Amino acid sequence: MEYLSILGGRGRRIDEQIAHDLRIHELLGDIFGKRNDDFLRSLYLEQLDNEEVAVFRLNVFRDLLKGEVLDAVAEFVERVNKAVRILETEKDAYEEHRIGMHVDAALIYTEAVETAWSRLRGLPIESEGLASFTRYLGEIAGSEKFRELGRRAREAAEARDQIKIRVWIEGDRIRVTREEHGEDLSALVDSLFSRFKGDGQGAEVKYIKTTGDASHIHAAILRGAFKMYRTQYDILRRFSEDFPSFIDDGIASFAKEAEFYLIYINYMKSLEQMGYRFTIPSFTDGGIYVRKFYNLLLAKRGSSVPNDIQTDGSRRIFVITGMNSGGKTTFATSFGQIVFLSKLGLPVPAVEAKIPFFSSIMTAYPVEEDVEESLSRLELDVVRAKAIIERADSRSLVIANELFSNTTSDEGLLLTRLFFEELAKRGSYCLFVTFLHKAADLDGVITLVAQPSPEDPERPSYVIAPGRPPAEYMAARIARRYQLTYGKIREVVK
Amino acid sequence: MIEFDLLRTGAARPAAGADDLRRDLELDKIVAAASGGDELVAEVWREVLLLADASPDSISYRQDAVRDALRNRDAVLGLYRIANETVDAVRRRVFLFRPHDPAVVVHEAVNGLEVMVASLRDVLAVLKSTAFSSEAFRQMSKSVLDNINDEFLASAQELVKVLRFENGVQFSVRIGELNSLEDPVLLVPRKGESNILSKVLRRDEYVYRLDPRDEAGAYILDDIRKWVLANAASTIFKAFKHLDSFFQDLRRQLAFYVGAINLSGYFEKLGLPAAYPRLSKGALKFSGMHCLSLSISAGSRPVPYDLDVEAEGGFAVVVTGANRGGKTTFLKAVGQSLVLARAGLFVPADEFALPSTGAVYTHFPRREDRTLSYGKFEEEVKRLSAIVEGLRRGDYVLMDETFSSTNQVEASVVAEEVIAALVDSGVNVFYVTFLQDFLNRFLDRYRERAVLLVPEVRQDGTRTFRLVRGKPTPGYALDIWRKYMAA
Residue B238 and residue A228: Cβ atoms within 8 Å? Predict the structure, then answer.
């Protein structure tokens, strides 16, 4: 049978400005960590146009999120990739090294296939993607050629383990003998000086070899070893001759593509350890119902307050007002990220998420200072609004942050109303962050407000909830703010 | 294993607000007098004076050791000199600036071992000839003598020779994954193998000789040699560090007592009294106590202070009165003596008894606090709040004009609440203040657990700079009203 791609299909690259506004590159930075893989990175920037492909991928996630399936797949991918890498390097190695590398690659590969097959076949796999791959794996593992490969590789490795030599380096001369009954010099030093206290911290001399393990000098030492251990050498050598290449092409492709899932699950786990949750989104025909979604970037760096957003689809414009630094932009960006992730076929940071399969995400965030002066800021806002309106449809999500804020509030409100009317005509969805409180009174909008902390009305709670825009807040007493009251001090001092 | 702890300072956590304490109590002046310019003594003194935790046991342990050190000052100074010279010699002879080159590490560490093994002989000589009396010094001496004898010194010298690797390195190795060499174990060189001819002729040996033009090969061989030495280098480096930290610990711990010996001399020169503080439950009592930093600056014996407060669990000593009355000096004197007492040192007083060994905190005005504003008030409150967070029963808080950055009416309200809460929580408060509302209300409410000190003014109006018990000034407003109304 043929290998069927575990990705289900490919998408289209996201617009760079939108990626910037939604802070997608930072998000990918968190997801990828130090890993540098161009193939994976480009996959993560491809937004799917096809809902079915997204569902195909989400179903694979459903299987993987059953712990055992994930363990089996992750281990398999890691091992296969390792074997592939060894075979790559082997090409340039000395014969003394190559005969060993080949054995190790084969050992890793055969163990990978055997283990994965025996694990996956017993697990309840429901996704089309993984079920098909498991069948494929079974076919390989069952072949006679594959079994012989494993047997011979193990035999060679055992032979190698029997070798132990003494090397004496003096000047430009290396001597190799069989080693028996040597006395460990470090142990001697340790026994004499351990009577002096000290944890020896910082005494670790971690020497990183600058020349690698595979030089002609290493080869010479191995040659000496093989001279001392002739039988073992012959077994190693014959293995390479009998099995020149052994990795299946379909398995190699799977190992590469499956990283798309594994890297994200790793990322999910790092957040789940901190108490955050992910959910597999389901796609509605108009309603939005997302419970306890949060900002991934903030969560990763400390804490993120969860929020809800919902509409049955009859009203689609959300106006978000409230105190400064109250979490309004974060709310809008977080929702945008959820939509972005759903369009990759990835689980999203929320407890529950039902959203439409959006056709596109569009953003209008405050522009940075170095904008060309040919247009006024207000004009620029209008230009951006127009671009959005031109492309918007009933499955578009528009995220606008302080749009029309570069003018008087009367004018800003007027433009906002006109903008909303256009979006409403097209049935587009919009999150509109603004300090124009009157925007919350416009027709047909859902008004959300950044709530103050219940303990301290001077401080934000980062909760965004339905409600009316706030009036003024009062300042609390200074001493109380710093806990200097009789009761607090009595509590604190033990 | 050789273990000793002359200081018993535990984890030696610096007290919260240690920087403020150091500055407000002018501890640097005291440290300078004790160290006589020896930076290590200064460093150890700062550490011990600013300890967050000091149990009564650890204090009396150090007090005994201080007395012992003053009695055996030649031995203490002698050990300190040996330790110092050893550490200096090691620093001169050992260059571990490339700790990632095992060959260098081994070479340098072995240099160090050679120096230190030799110094151990001198340490033994001093210890064998000194009869210490304190637990601290006796235990240290015993631990060293139990672990080091002449046999040890001989073996150590022999091993140092082997570690020079004059005939190359020998190691065992296995073939691991990818046919890389693994598990190198540096071996004790086998004797008799230096006879090259006899070895070359043997069949069970493979010899590879580097081509003289093979520079890369020579480089790799060197790399392998370092790789083999790396594991052993850690052990050798560790041995070096162990021995080095023995001398470091020794001189560091001795430094505290060297400082005590110096300060004792200073007291004698200035004619200051020296009392070993004692713990006295429920009472703070001192007499003839001087402000040490002022004494050091002036080179004389300043005005003495007396105080006798009985207070079970928390009291307040409130100080008020005209400027230049020596109120801040009094706070400093109290704070310095408390800090010295906790360190296990003698204090400049005829007598000194303290009710607890709690930590000392200061809340003194910062220069920029002098104007009235809520911003400044907030800064003060914030700073105080940080102190309160770490407070425990039995601690001491020394406050100099706290809350003076806002008007006295509202400041008094806050002050009353704060000081009352501290005292009720078992904290001992020294508070210099001018807040009239506070003085009247608080001293009335807490008359059992608070005393008021004011500068002494003689009948003839002259000031003595001493502080004496006082009473809050009664309100004259009504009198004046009546006087004028009556008029």
Answer: no
